[in-house]
Structure formats: C-alpha cells, structure tokens
Amino acid sequence: MVLQIGQKIKGETQNITFTVRKKLGEGTQGEVYLVEGGGGKFACKWYKLVQATGGQKSAIRALVRSGPPRGPSGNRFIWPLDLVASPGSSLFGYTMRLIDMDRFATLGEVQAHLKPVPSFSTLCTISYQLANSYRALHLNGYCYRDIADGNLMFDPHTGDVLICDNDNVGVNRQSHSQVWGTMEYMAPELIRGEKDPSTETDLHSLAVLLFHLWCWHHPLHGSMEFRFRVWDLPAKRKVYGEEPVFIFHPTDSRNRLPEDPDYATAKIRWAYCPPSLREMFTQAFTIGLADPKRRVTEGEWQREFLQLRDSIVSCTRCSAENFEEIGVSGSPCWHCRAPIPPHPKLAVRHSAGVHYLTLTEGAKILKRHLSTPWQEEEKETVIGEVVQHPQQPGVWGIRNLSSRPWKATTAGGEVLEIPPQKAVPLNPGFRILIEGAEVEIIP
Length: 443
What we know:
This protein has helices spanning 54-66, 71-75, 107-111, 120-139, 188-191, 199-215, 223-227, 233-242, 264-272, 275-284, 287-290, 298-309, 367-370; strands spanning 8-11, 17-26, 30-37, 40-47, 82-85, 92-96, 142-143, 152-154, 161-163, 170-171, 312-314, 321-323, 345-350, 353-358, 364-366, 382-388, 396-400, 406-409, 415-418, 423-425, 431-434, 437-442. It is of the alpha+beta class. A 6-stranded antiparallel beta barrel has the order 1-2-3-4-6-5. Strands 14-13-22-21-18-19 form a 6-stranded antiparallel sheet, with no helix packed on it.
C-alpha cells in the first residue's frame, strides 16, 4: 500500500501523528514522502511490501533507540527518528530529517554541472567529514553496509556532508541486513561470497567513494570493463570480485585506462591528486583488495585530508588552488603552469607524527594543529593567524589569538614572549611554544 496524500501515520516511540503532504521520491526499498506533525516537517521512508519484514522493523527500532554517534560526526547521518505505521496496515516506515535540496548536492549533479564543482579545499573537507563520520560509526560498533555515492550529499561551497539511507546500519558482524551494498562499491570478498558485511568491507566501499569524489571514475573501470560488450552480472562479478585490478596499478597493466574519451576525465583528475593521496589510493586498491586488514583506515584518511587542506596555496596568476608539497618548491600551477613560489610552513610534531601548515596570508593555526586527538567540537578553534605588519608591508608574522602568552625562541637562541594580540615574526628557524605544543617555522 502506497501512502495517500492526507493520510495519517503514527510514530511508535514519540506517539506523534503525521499527515502525508506529498511524495518526494522512490527507491529500491520504498518511497519517500514529506510528512508534517509534532510542529515540524519531516521526511518519511515507507517500505514496499517485500521489504517490510519483521527483521527490518526490529532493525529500525534498534536504530531509533540507539541514535546516531554523538557530536558533529554523528549529526551528519540522516538517522531514523521514529518508526511509523498506519492503522490497519502491516506496512511501516520511519521518519527522518528533511534535506535542503537546494543547498546540498549529489556527486551526479556535480558531474552533470547541475551544481557547482567543489574546490580542492572543499573536496578535502567533504572527504575528511566522510572519513570522520564513518570512523565514529565504526567506533560505536556498527557497520554501514551500503556506502555509495547515492547515499552521500554535500554542500559544494562549504563541504558539509550528509549521509542518507541509514536504515541498513547494523551491529558489526552480528545483525542481519536485507541489503549488502551497491555492487560497484562492494568489497571483492563480499562479491565472491566469502565474507559478510563488516567494518572491513566498509573500508573498501569508503575508498571507492573517495576515489569517485576525486577522480569522477571507478577505480576498477579500465580496459577489462571496456572490453565487455554486455555489462551484466557475470561481467561485474569478474571486474569487482574475481579479478579486480586497479586502473593505476604501478606494475599490473591488465586494466589500464583505454584510449577512449569516456575515460579521459579519470586521467586528468588523477593527475590533479597530490602524490601522497595517489599513494593511499594505490594502497587501497592493490594490497587492500586482497588483504582487508591492510586497507586504509578512516583515521589515515582523516589525517591525509586535513594535511592536504593545510597544504593548499593559490596561484598568484590565475588564483587556482594548488597543493604545495613538503620539500618541493617552484612547482608549476596545474591550471596556468605559472611557477608557485614556496611558502614557509609551520611544523607541528605530536604523537601522530609531523603535521605541516602552509603559512599563506590569512592562514589560521587551529586547535587541531597543536595536538591529537582533539575534541571534534573544538578542532576548528582559532589560536593564531598569519598577518601583515601594519606599518611595514611585506613583513609578516603570526598573531597570538589565544588567551595566553606564547614563548618564541629565535634561531640565535633569544627567547621572546608573545602576549595575546601580538605577533611573532614569520622567520624560519623560530620555535614557538603554543599551549604546551612546540612548533617550528621552516622554509
């Protein structure tokens, strides 16, 4: 039974009566409606008969009871709010937050140029937030089981992420699911029937989604896929499960990209990816294809995208964003080929290694730069900022925007105190003690 406009449905836990206002869309499992009740408007996913099983109803109840992971990482999930049913019907659904479809975009809309293409810095934010949210979900003992581009929406201007269709989330390696994933995102061992969905299979799906975001292509769609005349289930099983080969595999050339216009975008966008990101994708789709325990983790993706975002500089000629590599100077702009002048960097050493912040005009030192781990709610708190000397144009420093003084040591060993709102000169060799963390300005 489909829902009728004006029909009443009732929430099981919150006991709220909702009125169906209009149909918003339809998918494999059910239909989505705009409903109104409890003083607000919500979306309602209403299951089709074949999907409206007792097991699915129990799964939704469990998700409503547990709620999403806490904090910003959990708030990105469009989580089930309540189980809803209609009197006299065995069918059911669940309510969830409405999505602002004008603000948020799908990857397909971006690729079709219906929505703006995110900048590199925004793409880093999208990628970080994805890894961050799935990490929080996995730490809570859940696996998502259907990570795919169809379940992702993002603001192409800010990089804010929403993760949709969370009704297939389940306890890792325990709870049953009617959905095992979208085939092109499924791990090889799932396709071969060797394993059940888990956090390890989620890691493969996440890597595929991130590759799609950066390269607008599937990591296994190369010559092997190109040669199939019929893209049917046996063909997909071979490419995704039985003989998966990365299109940019460093030594195995069986699945290189063919010389065909439909594959040109992948080559171009792969070249845009900085070397460190290409290395991580290569790990994910070589070693990680065969050994689930050696897949790139969410934490590793998080660190990579935070580092990349902190390495972005703008070309002085065309303003295009470029990634400045550590130890490499004078690289040409990818867009106009003008040389990119080197910038000083802030090297922060902590337990997770060394993090580098490129010190461009207006660059901000954040809470997350100084220590790890950090509280998600505080990670973007501004501690300092690169500013120009008010009386001496061309002379730069880092202004103390914290509430406590800093101690700076010059290359010659002189110790300076930098009170709040004052700036330390942007001189290579300076070491600064900021809230217990020692950082160094390097060329």
